[in-house]
Design brief:
- About 9% of the residues have low confidence.
- The chain is 28% helix and 20% strand.
- The two termini are 29 Å apart.
- The protein has a nine-stranded mixed β-sheet, with helices on both faces.
Length: 274
């Protein structure tokens, strides 16, 4: 039987401050699972289906994704305009041969009613997600455009300059406890489009992220250069149709396999398996 643990809160914004605080519930969950660990944190704009994608990766089409009374398990989802996720929640799918798939569900960026820390980008949460992931999952809805690439490029540039950002007197976000920054290869980058309106794939990803032919130091070139140097391998691009579509679950299974094919961690401290 499919075994999924969580979700539990991992990071929360401290009240009345600009600090991020680690939640004991999430830490205890991560400490309870053994290696190897495949870790995928989902980032992206608000209300684009990150929590839904996380639940699909965890449960698949298994009926254990709902309780006996029909109530939903997993990350909280909803159909309203209001943001559903605050900070970062984490859940674990135990693998049959040992180890686990760890899925982190990050609060969405750019929401007018969401956290001020994620109003203009992924912020410190994005930096934490980058450093903890073996595969970073960027989620968008319907399509992917230059705004997504720019936000990813800004994150990629940030992790190359600071790890993680400490903030300071200027009021920028700070992390309450200094997290461990693993000394290991960077994560892979998986671009995921929910409810895709077009036929997308890895060839499109290569074209999207190819530097402009005229080179230069404009914004497009800088974003793509930062992405190319901050992730392992070539980014993948997966387009999921509506959940009711016959191709939905096979595509989710293929995405899960991509994530599991990345080099895992040997422990929650961030060391690679040998």
């Amino acid at each position: 039987r499919l075994a999924v643990l969580g979700p539990q809160p991992l990071l929360r914004h401290a009240p009345a401050t600009s600090r991020l605080e680690l939640a004991q519930e999430g830490l205890e969950l991560l400490r309870s699972v053994g290696p190897p660990l495949h870790v995928a944190f989902a980032i992206g704009g608000s209300r684009c289906g990150k929590s839904t994608a996380g639940n699909a990766l965890l449960f698949g089409d298994d009926s254990s994704g709902s309780g006996s009374d029909g109530s939903a398990l997993g990350f909280e989802t909803g159909g309203s305009f209001e943001p559903m996720t605050t900070g970062v929640d984490v859940a674990v799918r135990l693998m049959p041969g040992g180890g686990a798939l760890v899925v982190g569900d990050c609060e969405g960026a750019f929401h007018v009613c969401g956290s001020s820390q994620s109003a203009r980008g992924f912020g410190a949460l994005g930096v934490v997600a980058y450093h903890l992931s073996t595969s970073l999952l960027h989620v968008s809805m319907g399509s992917i455009d230059e705004r997504d690439i720019e936000a990813l490029g800004y994150l990629a540039a940030a992790v190359g300059a600071v790890a993680p950002p400490a903030g300071g007197a200027d009021g920028e976000e700070r992390i309450a406890q200094e997290p461990i920054v693993p000394d290991r290869a960077p994560p892979s980058l998986n671009l995921l489009v929910n409810g895709a309106r077009f036929d997308l794939g890895d060839a499109v990803a290569r074209r999207l992220l190819r530097p402009p032919e005229d080179g230069g130091d404009d914004g497009r070139w800088c974003s793509r250069r930062a992405i190319a140097t901050s992730f392992t391998g070539s980014p993948s691009l997966d387009a999921l149709p509506a959940c009711e579509h016959a191709a939905y679950w096979p595509k989710v299974a293929a995405l899960r396999q991509r994530i599991l094919s990345a080099a895992p961690l040997a422990s929650a401290d961030g060391e690679h398996s040998s």
